[in-house]
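Example record

The entry below shows one chain as it appears in the dataset: sequence first, then structure tokens.
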Amino acid sequence: MPEGDTVWNTARVVEKALAGEVLTGSDFRVPQLATTDLTGWTVAESASRGKHLLLRLTREGREPHTLHSHLRMEGAWRAYTPGERWTGRPAHLIRVALKTARSVAVGYHLHELALIPTADEEKLVGHLGPDLLGADWDPAEAVRRISGKPSASIAEALLDQRNLAGVGNLYKAETLFLRGLWPWTPVEKVKDLMGTVVLAQKLVASNRGRWTQTTTGSLRRGQTSYVYGRRAQPCRRCAGPIQKAEQDDRVTYWCPRCQPDRTGS
């Protein structure tokens, strides 16, 4: 699933293509919006909120509206010049195309695609915790929310978008490795929740503006992560084998030596 920085970067792609432009056409390929025509609307802003994309639209004499989408696992937006071939994904995965005089933005395999009054955005994203890449980022609030479920595992807590918006499996695993935390550690037994939350935000923010995600500082293939995606490979710290296991319907990676179970269970 795309992490918060990927969604932020995607919002910039759409913003560069459409912001400030008047739409000359729209093509929705989902039943609920099949008859919607956004011709004449101006794209005011392309924003991200955690893992949600919010394309804000205005038109004189009309209430501002927002086109909301979620990338989930496979979603993506691509920008093209008029007349350029749309090569981002197979055509049957296209869910929407937005056209202007100078560019076309195409959304592939998008989820939760909806057009709503901008005033109602909170109905879709109001449940989210502080956005790691947003102006509302507040680590103290994130800690407060995480602490509300003391028996939850720290891995589960970091992935819960109601606690903090933008952490996915990659940053969860890498944050816990760097903090030396066993993924199944209950929140109530994490000694420094603030330090863990702050590190997660720093890791996500460090990759804002680029598509290659790294937590090690290296952009070389195979050297971008400490544990994520490295099952059975040697730990970069202790040389022991990295482990992979199912956790809360997701997979997790960790180093048993560097992240031992200190809960006494």
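Notes for this example: The chain is about 20% helix and 20% strand. The two ends are 31 Å apart (CA to CA).
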